[in-house]
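Long-time lurker, first post. I've been practising inverse folding by hand and with some scripts of my own, and I keep getting stuck on stretches where the structure tokens seem ambiguous. Below is the full token string for one chain I'm working on. Before anyone asks, I'm not after the true native sequence, just a reasonable design that respects the backbone. If someone could post their per-position residues I'd love to compare against what I wrote down in my notebook.
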């Protein structure tokens, strides 16, 4: 749009890419009849495509198959909009860390964006990379990382420590008492054997 008051030409955020030509008439203020028509050409270039993948992280437990990350695109954007399977593509990284993770069962599915583990995946921390590209401009790409932590399963509860019931305590106390009484009786017999008989006399 050409503003006749200021002579400025402006565009809006909705103006599509393309070349636009405007005409205007320039006249002399002192001689309004002296005029000349000319043009102004405006070229609007396409907005640069920007993909912005973000790092992801998830956890799983060893011994159980799991999906620690449902879709790595859930926190990614493409041209300011949420990245989807329609407007973006995923390529799994070929770096050693990603390949090592895949060998242990930590796999990124490029079709769905999900990261899964298997029941055989050992406990540990795994890092994968992926490349997010714009579907309409396949050369516009960015790389992001995914970290998956697989923890060891919780140890089983230790067996309960045996405890004595009230009856067991009573029986134990009775046995201790019986032993004590037997020892007391034994001491009394020993004392009786070692003492002189009552009423007896001893000759010089």
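-- Answer (accepted) --
I ran through it position by position. Result:
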């Amino acid at each position: 749009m050409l503003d006749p008051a200021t002579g400025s030409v402006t565009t809006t955020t909705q103006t599509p890419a393309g070349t636009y030509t405007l005409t205007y008439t320039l006249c002399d203020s002192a001689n309004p009849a002296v005029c000349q028509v000319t043009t102004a050409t405006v070229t609007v270039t396409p907005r640069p495509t920007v993909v912005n993948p973000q790092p992801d992280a998830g956890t799983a437990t060893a011994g159980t198959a799991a999906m620690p990350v449902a879709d790595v695109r859930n926190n990614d954007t493409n041209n300011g909009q949420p990245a989807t399977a329609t407007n973006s593509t995923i390529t799994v990284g070929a770096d050693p860390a990603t390949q090592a993770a895949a060998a242990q069962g930590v796999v990124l599915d490029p079709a769905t964006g999900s990261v899964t583990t298997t029941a055989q995946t050992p406990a540990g921390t795994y890092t994968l990379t992926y490349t997010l590209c714009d579907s309409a401009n396949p050369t516009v790409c960015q790389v992001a990382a995914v970290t998956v932590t697989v923890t060891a399963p919780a140890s089983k509860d230790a067996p309960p420590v045996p405890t004595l019931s009230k009856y067991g305590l009573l029986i134990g106390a009775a046995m201790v008492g019986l032993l004590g009484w037997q020892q007391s009786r034994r001491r009394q017999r020993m004392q009786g054997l070692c003492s002189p008989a009552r009423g007896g006399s001893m000759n010089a």
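A couple of notes from the structure itself: The mean pLDDT is 88. Residues 1-47 form one domain. Happy to go over any region you disagree with.
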